[in-house]
Write a structure and sequence with these properties.
mainly beta
Amino acid sequence: QVRLVESGGGLVQAGGSLRLSCAVSGIIFSRNGFGWYRQASGKPRELVALISSGGITNYGESVKGRFTISRDNAEKTVYLEMNSLEPDDTAVYSCNWQTFWGKGALVTVSS
């Protein structure tokens, strides 16, 4: 059974930082790539970041230079380090593998 479980969301002031984690089970973690997506209220889901099995990363334009995706194969966890957070970053952040999604973690950035 594939499971993706996010953690680390919360409330932060603009300019602050948060780190999200996505614990993955049910697949061979090291052989797979993963993604972080977000959806703000009333807006469509958008790509935040991708990481391949080999560690190659890609980012959405709105987060480039501020967010970093990484992975720990031993811990079977994908991370999203978010710095210089802005109110427009407020959204539910979800971890993704193929057609599977976690339940999401709410990130709220206050101005």
